[in-house]
Amino acid sequence: MSKRKQITNIEGVGWRELPRAGVIVEAGNAAKYNTGDWRSVKPVWKEDNCIHCLFCWVFCPDAAILTEDGKMTGIDFDHCKGCGICAKECPAKEKALVMVDDSASQ
Q: Which helix (H) or strand (E) holds 100?
């Protein structure tokens, strides 16, 4: 098994030197990158239907569910990629999150 050197700056590094899983040169930097413009659908929060169970917050892979004092307060669309996990996991009888076409609101 060959040893790979630790890469701290990817400038000038060829594809052969990169590890198979990718390179994270600065841990914890995801908040700097607004990735919400990738989505084609987005969740719409129906506040009246929300039971504030926070399942959406627990399951959201992008930390895009906004909360305050143990209650959902909205969605951070700068980071929401529109995966729909929040809407799928919502246990409310009348769903509090529904996915809609993102282009309809622009």
A: strand 97-101
| pLDDT at residue 105, as a whole number | 54
Q: Judge whether 20 and 50 are in contact, CB under 8 Å.
A: no
Whether 7 is covered by a domain: the verdict is no
Q: How many CA atoms lie within 13 A of 70 on its CB side?
A: 2
Q: If you search the block for the tokens 């409310």, which residue do you land on? A: 92
- How many Cβ atoms from other residues are within 10 Å of residue 80's Cβ? 21
pLDDT, tens digit (0-9, with 9 covering 90-100), for 38-71:
899 999 999 999 999 999 999 999 999 999 999 9
Question: What is this structure's pTM?
Answer: 0.72
| Rounded Cα gap, residues 106 and 40, in angstroms | 11
Q: Which residue, 79, 85, 100, is CA-closest to 36?
A: 79
Domain that holds residue 96: 34-105
| CATH number of 93's domain | 3.30.70.20
Specify the number of domains making up the chain.
Answer: 1
